[in-house]
Amino acid sequence: MHAADPLRDTLTQLIPKFEEAFPGVRVSVDYGAGLEHAQHVLHGMPIDVFVSSDEAATTMVAAHDRGAPAVVARNPIVIALPRTADRIAAIGDLRDAKVALCAETTPCGRGSRAALVAAAVEVQPAVVEPDAPATLAQVRSGAADAALAYRTEVVAAGDDLRAVDFEQATGLADQYTAIRPDTGANAKGADAFVAFLSSALARHVFADAGLSPA
After folding, report:
1. Which pTM was predicted?
2. Same domain, 108 and 151
3. Same domain, 150 and 204
């Protein structure tokens, strides 16, 4: 199968559980960029399952789906705050706060700015960092009151930060879509694995990583 690299940790936990439930089935995963993997499908590579949040890539591969694409998880932009902070409760509160943002060239930066536009909240960032870990470090150090990042990035940053959801970002959340390309050789196994990604166990593992259920 092909899968987006941000799913590496969750799939590393889930695949052994799937293989235990389906003796004799072994899942091999190639992680990487969605568009690159989509080209593999379009060129006929025998791929049983394709999972990506890249909208352009999933649109390309969906034309070769044996069934219907299945959204298995979502990853929204959230407000990252210190665990004990209570001054900021909603997206509008960022207008009067010191906010750290990821650079516009990063997925975190593009997603954050799109969420702010959707919420009609204008923010002049106090600091702009090259990636999510550096952006969240500004909150941890006290240099920023809050930051915007994907929920998975806030969860991965540690227990001293907490994530606050807001409606407009939830509507724009990245969607991890599972597709079963018609180039695959193991249709039965692909069907079972995509169904497994929507199971209660998978939802629990996704939630621990900060991903919302589909």
Report:
1. 0.85
2. yes
3. no
